[in-house]
Design brief:
This protein has 327 residues and is an alpha/beta fold. The strands form 3 sheets. A 6-stranded parallel β-sheet has the order 1-6-5-2-4-3, sandwiched between helices. It has a 4-stranded antiparallel β-sheet with strand order 8-9-7-12, with helices on both faces. The chain has 3 domains: 44 residues, no CATH class; 162 residues, Rossmann fold; 74 residues, RRM (RNA recognition motif) domain (Alpha-Beta Plaits). A hairpin with a 4-residue loop joins strand 8 and strand 9. The radius of gyration is 22 Å and the shape is flat. The two termini are 41 Å apart.
Length: 327
């Protein structure tokens, strides 16, 4: 199975893709998934697949499930202010902000944290453990804003995503549709905000033609909102030092937390089990009690350690490169 095939080609993985195919048996079943279907994907499919069938999923979003808003901004400083105003006005519980570069995701998340927003970045420099932890925290509602590149956000499956922000508009209308399609799923409604400068007007015109839509800039929320404080996540994430290898299941953690003299079941959110660790979301007002239960009790007959996860992941790959540069 080859997933995200279009992005693999865009990122220059044609040789690696060919090598994988050459290493597979002649008698095989090949599944190729792609959010978009450019000519290059068709050529790849024709070369590696035989007697293939193409299945196209119908568009699942329309103006009744995703409401789009467009805002013109003068410069990068105004862009950040516009984002803050939109987040303060609408108070979405979970928002993905799409950026064009890894550097921009890091800088934007840091800037938002400086203004007391709950924000993290996801990008290609994160080690897998840090990526998993970031996605877990965002998915379980203990982080409100995720700054991401298109590549990093591929495969991001978050239920009930309230809003998507295009910090910079994509030059490809199909990518724009793919971005905003992450909200308004499963019959729910979602918001899509797009910021653009005068030098991006041609992208807006191209997108309007693609969507058959007349795009007009709207007024941003009033600046007096900047004097208010961002809403903080209602959930927190706890790390437990036991996982699949210790045969831990979500029910074991839930049972320990909600047992005799435990916390209420409604105070426990998503539970994710990894090979050597687990993550559990609990209401902010239940953190102390949950930590005490997990640290003083046992899971599957063994003692475990638990702690609340705060802060942002370290940029492991970049730090390692820095270390090498000084050797």
């Amino acid at each position: 199975m080859l997933d995200e095939a279009d992005r693999m080609l865009e990122m220059g993985f044609q040789k690696e893709l060919d090598a994988i195919v050459e290493a597979t048996p002649l008698q095989r079943q090949t599944l190729l998934f792609s959010a978009t279907f450019p000519a290059e994907i068709g050529a790849v499919a024709g070369r590696i697949m035989h007697n293939s069938k193409r299945v196209t999923a119908a568009a699942a979003h329309d103006s009744t499930t995703i409401v789009q808003h467009f805002y013109r901004v003068d410069d990068d400083g105004a862009r950040l202010t516009a984002l803050r105003l939109l987040l303060l006005q609408h108070q979405p519980e979970s928002t993905v902000v799409f950026c064009n570069t890894k550097k921009e995701t890091r800088e934007l998340a840091e800037a938002l944290r400086n203004y007391k927003f709950s924000a993290l970045a996801i990008h290609g420099d994160l080690e897998q453990n840090d990526r998993d932890r970031t996605l877990v925290r965002f998915a379980n509602k203990s982080v409100a804003v995720l700054a991401a590149t298109d590549v990093a956000a591929r495969g991001l499956d978050i239920n009930a995503l309230d809003a998507v922000v295009n910090y910079h508009i994509s030059s490809d209308p199909e990518v724009h549709v793919h971005r905003i399609g992450r909200t308004g799923r499963a019959g729910s409604t979602g918001l899509a905000f797009t910021l653009y400068g005068d030098n991006e007007r041609h992208k807006i015109d191209r997108l309007g033609d693609y969507l058959e839509l007349v795009i007009e800039a709207e007024e941003l929320p009033p600046k007096k909102l900047l004097n208010t404080s961002p809403a903080q996540p209602r959930m927190a994430t706890l790390l437990v030092t036991a996982g699949k290898k210790q045969k831990i299941r979500p029910g074991d953690i839930l049972g320990a937390l909600t047992g005799q003299q435990g916390i209420a079941g409604k105070q426990v959110g998503k539970i994710n089990i990894f090979p050597d660790s687990s993550y559990v979301a609990v209401n902010q007002n239940a953190v102390s009690a949950a930590l005490k239960i997990l640290s003083q009790g046992k899971l599957k007959g063994r003692s475990v350690k638990a702690r609340k996860i705060d802060g942002q992941p370290t940029n492991s790959r970049r730090l390692e490169r820095r270390k090498k540069s000084f050797r």
